[in-house]
């Protein structure tokens, strides 16, 4: 005799699942012609889900036999995921119409992937973690290969799938090791176990550490941290640009959230062990992201390396392993979403005579042909390079601050040096836009949604400086909830 | 009223400097000249009120710096010393302003020139009205700046660039000493205010300061450092090399800055600080020694030069030497007297030389002049008056002041005083000689300029000759009129508290009681000099060549200015250049740029290239990287965790 589970903590997810099915039915019956309508509805569903998340109780609740957890950390990250996803859908609408990709499955798949991410954020067990991850990944595999008549897109989807399967394998293997050595897969039980374990002996078995390493590797793949990043440039370049934009934001936020929860909650007392992994991947990601981007000519590839670098910076906060560090990570991801969606919005505007272009040199003289667009890009690039007063500066400031307080001086110093190298390629884009002569101007017609997204994100990035407290307080409260449990 | 006298030139400089384009050449000339002339008139009133009626006063303008115990105000101090300097500066400056209107009539940058001149005047007035060391330093640096700007006025000329830099850099050496001196004063007295420091000076005599293990007399150290500043600004031997080169500037500049006013700032400074220097006898002896040596060395060089302005420049340096050895024997009032008379006749000589140069189409080499005295009679007469005053011929201004200095030196009866007296007599002989050498070579004999130049020779316009006339009046009568005030019976009343002399050091008093041959000696030396000049250049023109070749090495040594430039070049300039070049090429270029910016950039590019190459595009490479990554991490924990 089992009790019927409490559903309220999972209300947004349940709503999204039902909506996804409904939208799919609607699409099937109405046909591809109504893709635009479905897209708008998808955005609407996500907005409603975000409202549901925000109106939740705010206290920590678990349900479904301890598999699912809802707390303010989860709420914060879910809102970020939903925001990233909704913005991605918005910027994709015109693109898929123009590029003959108008299929109703496109927004629905994005909705399903988002649902998977929500599940990841709320996972409280290695099993629910895996289920959420796979729901997300399967939808993303399809999205990456969405232009199946296009060799590059198919290649991207296939690569992502094969490597994703490998990473899932690693993750499962790690989960089985953990189960084998600890006897449970539930986060709460694991946390209690390790806390007691640490007090008794101060020694943790190598099997558990190996398991943790494998799980971490699987998650590192999703956030494309070095050395599990190799798929990123190829997939970013090959996938349709709105999909790339989506890849760059929503799954990253969800996977980081999962990563943070996994390391802080169940494995919190093993911080000395996992910090070494995070330290290494953070450093390697920052360095590789900065250096490898310099040689790129394709702007989507460049953004791939840029996102690798950004994940490295965010992980610096996680490496600190403190409440301040987690706050830094959440804050970084929030700002990261805005900068990235805005930048991809501009990349989506890069068309010459109706044909998409992706080379950095195509931006030459943008300041003369599209002054406002160039200005927005300037703001994003300054922000990504971490130049004050753009928001990206504060993002970096908080993670490095946390690292310093955790006495990770070498990581902070190397990170700052890497960001100096990284500044080069961001500034080069500005140089190309402002100082090079235009070769062939980009097309002028930019849709209303796109203008809205670019203007909104760039204003946020520029003016964040004046109103930092709502976001900061939110992140602080969310981080506190994680450590309270 | 007093404030207007000081700040009108600044206002004029501001207007002409920033709005010169707006108000035009004529406007700039009227504004600046008018302002300085008004200042000159006010200074006459001030002179009567302050110096003659004894109404010395200080006007506080505002607090400048107030930090802890360090307090500095902007204030204008008016006493007899200041009043004398105001008369000198403003009179000469206004005459030079007027003269410049004519002299610079063919120049294209008249507003700039006039603005610089007025700016210089302002800084000079700040210097002489300062009531504390820091404000004096402000004026001191300001005149240095104005001098730099004016020497380099014709900035297209490389030689002017070099000369201005030389002037600035050599002065920096002296100013460094001056600044250290001010710091020493503050260290000793805890104040930089003149009155406070002067009041405490007697109590400080005999104190020592320990520097690197040596116990040094505190006041001597401070005074020597301050004098170092004076040496730079007043071109005393050792730091004099910039003055002859400064003649690259336009001639009115030479007259105003490098003869009458700025170069005498050092003399003024020592006289102003007489209450301190009186208690530092060693420093005074040193000053007297340097002054006498300068007077002699500069005179010998003056004998051999051919550039008309350089001859007068060395003459200036020599006369400054006189003033300094007067200071050195505590005859401050005599030094100030000579400063004043010298300002008139030296400005007259320079402006006269400018008139000659103007007439001869910018020719400055005396070997290409000659035979023009009938063509430019006014200038000729003016040069005569200036030279008579310079040579110390009776009843001209220089006679009174120079005699007074030599008598005071004799009357001091110290070793260094005697040294100064005899070198002074020799220098007086040489002064007369080179002055008439200049007159004869310039105006008499066969014309050595080419026909085209000769056809153009013309007397200068009235706007240039009127200032000459006014200065000539000063050169003739200044000595006669002012003798009693400056060094005669009325001197105690005239100077008031402005100059302080210990009773046993009162050489000016003693100078009135020297043997009868002493006052005659410089006059006779002057006459001999003039006679020799006539002999050498008028009656036996082959003689100079013979003497020069007979003296051979000595002549060349003197002609090349005692090799100071060569020596400094070897000692300072070449090593500095060598060091700079070395640090630039190997230090900055090879090491810092090579390893730093260039090296890092190259390394970054290299790393970027390699990092990008990792991305092969093959799935199995990627999978391999992931697996290796996991293996490495697990292995790390296995072995080190």
UniProtKB/TrEMBL annotation, chain A:
<dbReference type="GO" id="GO:0012505">
    <property type="term" value="C:endomembrane system"/>
</dbReference>
<keyword id="KW-0874">Quinone</keyword>
<feature type="transmembrane region" description="Helical">
    <location>
        <begin position="328"/>
        <end position="350"/>
    </location>
</feature>
<feature type="transmembrane region" description="Helical">
    <location>
        <begin position="158"/>
        <end position="181"/>
    </location>
</feature>
<feature type="transmembrane region" description="Helical">
    <location>
        <begin position="201"/>
        <end position="221"/>
    </location>
</feature>
<keyword id="KW-1003">Cell membrane</keyword>
<comment type="function">
    <text>NDH-1 shuttles electrons from NADH, via FMN and iron-sulfur (Fe-S) centers, to quinones in the respiratory chain. The immediate electron acceptor for the enzyme in this species is believed to be ubiquinone. Couples the redox reaction to proton translocation (for every two electrons transferred, four hydrogen ions are translocated across the cytoplasmic membrane), and thus conserves the redox energy in a proton gradient.</text>
</comment>
<dbReference type="InterPro" id="IPR001750">
    <property type="entry name" value="ND/Mrp_TM"/>
</dbReference>
<feature type="transmembrane region" description="Helical">
    <location>
        <begin position="276"/>
        <end position="295"/>
    </location>
</feature>
<dbReference type="GO" id="GO:0005886">
    <property type="term" value="C:plasma membrane"/>
</dbReference>
<dbReference type="GO" id="GO:0048038">
    <property type="term" value="F:quinone binding"/>
</dbReference>
<keyword id="KW-0813">Transport</keyword>
<comment type="similarity">
    <text>Belongs to the complex I subunit 2 family.</text>
</comment>
<keyword id="KW-0520">NAD</keyword>
<feature type="transmembrane region" description="Helical">
    <location>
        <begin position="127"/>
        <end position="146"/>
    </location>
</feature>
<feature type="transmembrane region" description="Helical">
    <location>
        <begin position="37"/>
        <end position="55"/>
    </location>
</feature>
<feature type="transmembrane region" description="Helical">
    <location>
        <begin position="302"/>
        <end position="322"/>
    </location>
</feature>
<feature type="transmembrane region" description="Helical">
    <location>
        <begin position="242"/>
        <end position="264"/>
    </location>
</feature>
<feature type="transmembrane region" description="Helical">
    <location>
        <begin position="371"/>
        <end position="394"/>
    </location>
</feature>
<feature type="transmembrane region" description="Helical">
    <location>
        <begin position="448"/>
        <end position="467"/>
    </location>
</feature>
<feature type="transmembrane region" description="Helical">
    <location>
        <begin position="406"/>
        <end position="427"/>
    </location>
</feature>
<protein>
    <recommendedName>
        <fullName>NADH-quinone oxidoreductase subunit N</fullName>
        <ecNumber>7.1.1.-</ecNumber>
    </recommendedName>
</protein>
UniProtKB/TrEMBL annotation, chain B:
<dbReference type="InterPro" id="IPR001516">
    <property type="entry name" value="Proton_antipo_N"/>
</dbReference>
<feature type="transmembrane region" description="Helical">
    <location>
        <begin position="372"/>
        <end position="399"/>
    </location>
</feature>
<dbReference type="GO" id="GO:0003954">
    <property type="term" value="F:NADH dehydrogenase activity"/>
</dbReference>
<feature type="transmembrane region" description="Helical">
    <location>
        <begin position="81"/>
        <end position="101"/>
    </location>
</feature>
<dbReference type="GO" id="GO:0016020">
    <property type="term" value="C:membrane"/>
</dbReference>
<dbReference type="InterPro" id="IPR003945">
    <property type="entry name" value="NU5C-like"/>
</dbReference>
<dbReference type="GO" id="GO:0015990">
    <property type="term" value="P:electron transport coupled proton transport"/>
</dbReference>
<dbReference type="GO" id="GO:0012505">
    <property type="term" value="C:endomembrane system"/>
</dbReference>
<feature type="domain" description="NADH:quinone oxidoreductase/Mrp antiporter transmembrane">
    <location>
        <begin position="130"/>
        <end position="421"/>
    </location>
</feature>
<feature type="domain" description="NADH-Ubiquinone oxidoreductase (complex I) chain 5 N-terminal">
    <location>
        <begin position="64"/>
        <end position="114"/>
    </location>
</feature>
<protein>
    <submittedName>
        <fullName>NADH:ubiquinone oxidoreductase subunit L</fullName>
    </submittedName>
</protein>
<keyword id="KW-1133">Transmembrane helix</keyword>
<feature type="transmembrane region" description="Helical">
    <location>
        <begin position="520"/>
        <end position="540"/>
    </location>
</feature>
<feature type="transmembrane region" description="Helical">
    <location>
        <begin position="320"/>
        <end position="337"/>
    </location>
</feature>
<feature type="transmembrane region" description="Helical">
    <location>
        <begin position="619"/>
        <end position="639"/>
    </location>
</feature>
<dbReference type="GO" id="GO:0008137">
    <property type="term" value="F:NADH dehydrogenase (ubiquinone) activity"/>
</dbReference>
<feature type="transmembrane region" description="Helical">
    <location>
        <begin position="253"/>
        <end position="271"/>
    </location>
</feature>
<feature type="transmembrane region" description="Helical">
    <location>
        <begin position="113"/>
        <end position="130"/>
    </location>
</feature>
<feature type="transmembrane region" description="Helical">
    <location>
        <begin position="461"/>
        <end position="486"/>
    </location>
</feature>
<dbReference type="GO" id="GO:0042773">
    <property type="term" value="P:ATP synthesis coupled electron transport"/>
</dbReference>
<keyword id="KW-0812">Transmembrane</keyword>
<keyword id="KW-0830">Ubiquinone</keyword>
């Amino acid at each position: 005799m089992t009790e019927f589970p409490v559903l309220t903590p999972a209300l947004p997810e349940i709503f999204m699942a039902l909506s996804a099915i409904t939208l799919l039915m609607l699409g099937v019956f109405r046909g591809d012609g109504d893709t635009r309508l479905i897209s708008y509805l998808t955005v609407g569903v996500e907005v409603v889900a975000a409202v549901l998340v925000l109106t939740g109780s705010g206290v920590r609740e678990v349900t479904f036999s301890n598999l699912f957890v809802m707390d303010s950390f989860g709420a914060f990250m879910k809102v970020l995921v939903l925001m990233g996803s909704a913005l991605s859908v918005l910027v994709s609408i015109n693109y898929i119409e123009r590029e003959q990709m108008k299929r109703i499955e496109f927004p629905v798949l994005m909705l399903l992937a988002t649902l998977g991410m929500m599940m990841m954020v709320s996972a409280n067990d290695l099993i629910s973690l895996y289920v959420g991850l796979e729901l997300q990944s399967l939808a993303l595999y399809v999205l990456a290969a969405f232009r199946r008549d296009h060799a590059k897109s198919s290649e991207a989807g296939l690569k992502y799938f094969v490597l994703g399967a490998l990473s899932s394998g690693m993750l499962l293997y790690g989960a089985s090791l953990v189960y084998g050595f600890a006897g449970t897969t539930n986060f709460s039980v694991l946390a209690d176990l390790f806390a007691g374990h640490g007090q008794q002996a101060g020694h943790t078995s190598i099997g558990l550490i190996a398991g943790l390493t494998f799980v971490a590797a699987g998650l590192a793949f999703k956030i494309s941290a070095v050395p599990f990043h190799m798929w990123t440039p190829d997939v970013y370049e090959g996938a349709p640009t709105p999909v790339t934009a989506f890849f760059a934001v929503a799954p990253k936020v969800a996977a980081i959230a999962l990563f943070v929860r996994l390391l802080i909650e169940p494995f919190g007392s093993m911080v000395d062990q996992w910090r070494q992994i995070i330290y290494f991947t953070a450093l390697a990601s920052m360095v590789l992201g900065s250096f490898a981007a310099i040689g790129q000519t394709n702007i989507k590839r460049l953004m791939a390396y840029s996102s690798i670098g950004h994940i490295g910076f965010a992980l610096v906060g996680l490496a600190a392993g403190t409440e301040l560090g987690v706050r830094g990570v959440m804050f970084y991801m929030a700002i990261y979403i805005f900068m990235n969606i805005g930048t991809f919005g501009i990349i989506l505007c890069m068309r010459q005579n109706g044909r998409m272009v992706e080379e950095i040199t195509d931006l030459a003289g943008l300041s003369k042909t599209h002054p406002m667009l160039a200005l927005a890009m300037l703001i994003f690039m300054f922000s990504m390079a971490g130049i004050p007063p753009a928001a990206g500066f504060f993002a970096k400031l908080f993670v490095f601050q946390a690292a310093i307080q955790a006495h990770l001086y070498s990581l902070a110093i190397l990170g700052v040096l890497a960001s100096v190298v990284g500044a080069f390629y961001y500034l080069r884009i500005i140089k190309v836009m402002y100082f090079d002569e235009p070769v062939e101007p980009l097309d002028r017609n930019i849709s209303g949604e796109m203008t809205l997204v670019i203007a909104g994100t760039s204003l946020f990035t520029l003016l964040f400086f004046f109103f930092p407290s709502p976001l900061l307080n939110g992140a602080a409260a969310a981080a506190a909830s994680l450590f309270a449990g | 009223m007093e404030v207007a006298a000081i700040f009108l030139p600044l206002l004029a400089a501001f207007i002409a400097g920033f709005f010169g384009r707006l108000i035009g050449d004529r406007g700039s000339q009227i504004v600046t000249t008018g302002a300085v002339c008004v200042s000159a008139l006010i200074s006459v009133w001030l002179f009567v009120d302050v110096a003659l009626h004894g109404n010395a006063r200080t006007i506080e303008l505002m607090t400048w710096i107030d930090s802890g115990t360090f307090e500095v105000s902007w204030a204008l101090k008016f006493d007899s010393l200041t009043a004398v300097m105001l008369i000198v500066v403003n009179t000469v400056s206004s005459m030079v302003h007027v003269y410049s209107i004519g002299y610079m009539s063919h120049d294209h940058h008249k507003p700039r020139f006039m603005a610089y001149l007025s700016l210089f005047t302002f800084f000079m007035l700040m210097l002489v009205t300062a009531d504390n060391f820091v404000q004096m330093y402000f004026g001191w640096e300001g005149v240095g700046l104005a001098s730099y700007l004016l020497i380099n006025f014709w900035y297209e000329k490389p030689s002017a660039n070099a000369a201005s830099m030389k002037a600035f850099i050599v002065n920096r050496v002296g100013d460094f000493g001056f600044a250290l001196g001010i710091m020493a004063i503050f260290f000793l007295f805890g104040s930089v205010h003149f009155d406070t420091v002067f009041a405490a000076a007697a109590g400080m005599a005999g104190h020592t300061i320990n520097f690197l293990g040596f116990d040094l007399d505190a006041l001597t150290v401070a005074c020597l450092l301050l004098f170092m500043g004076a040496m730079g600004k007043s071109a005393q031997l050792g730091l004099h090399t910039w003055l002859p080169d400064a003649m690259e500037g336009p001639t009115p500049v030479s007259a105003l800055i490098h003869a009458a006013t700025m170069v005498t700032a050092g003399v003024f400074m020592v006289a102003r600080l007489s209450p301190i220097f009186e208690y530092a006898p060693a420093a005074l002896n040193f000053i007297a020694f340097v002054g006498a040596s300068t007077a002699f060395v500069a005179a010998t060089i003056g004998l051999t030069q051919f550039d008309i302005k350089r001859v007068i420049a060395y003459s200036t340096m020599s006369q400054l030497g006189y003033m300094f050895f007067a200071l050195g024997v505590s005859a401050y009032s005599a030094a100030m007297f000579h400063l004043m008379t010298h300002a008139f006749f030296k400005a007259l000589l320079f402006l006269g030389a400018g008139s000659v140069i103007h007439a001869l189409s910018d020719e400055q080499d005396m070997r290409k002049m000659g035979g023009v005295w009938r063509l430019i009679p006014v200038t000729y007469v003016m040069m005569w008056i200036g030279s008579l005053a310079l040579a110390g011929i009776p009843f001209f201004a220089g006679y009174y002041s120079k005699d007074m200095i030599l008598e005071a030196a004799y009357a001091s009866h110290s070793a260094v005083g005697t040294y100064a007296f005899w070198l002074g007599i020799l220098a007086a002989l040489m002064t007369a000689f080179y002055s008439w050498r200049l007159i004869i070579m310039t105006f008499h004999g066969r014309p050595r300029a080419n026909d085209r130049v000769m056809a153009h020779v013309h007397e200068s316009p009235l706007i240039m000759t009127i200032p000459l006339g006014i200065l000539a009046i000063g050169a003739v009568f200044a000595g006669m009129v002012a003798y009693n005030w400056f060094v005669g019976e009325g001197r105690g009343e005239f100077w008031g508290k402005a100059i302080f002399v210990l009773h046993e050091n009162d050489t000016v008093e003693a100078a009135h009681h020297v043997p009868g041959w002493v006052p005659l000696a410089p006059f006779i030396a002057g006459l001999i000099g003039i006679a020799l000049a006539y002999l050498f250049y008028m009656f036996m023109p082959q003689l100079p060549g013979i003497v020069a070749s007979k003296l051979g090495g000595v002549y060349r040594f003197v002609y090349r200015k005692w090799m100071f430039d060569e020596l400094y070049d070897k000692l300072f300039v070449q090593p500095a250049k060598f060091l700079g070049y070395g640090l630039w090429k190997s230090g900055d270029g090879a090491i810092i740029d090579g390893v730093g910016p260039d090296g890092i950039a190259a390394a970054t590019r290299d790393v970027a290239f390699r990092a990008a190459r990792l991305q092969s595009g093959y799935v199995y490479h990627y999978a391999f990287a992931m697996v290796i990554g996991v293996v490495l991490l697990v292995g790390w924990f296995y072995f080190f965790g």
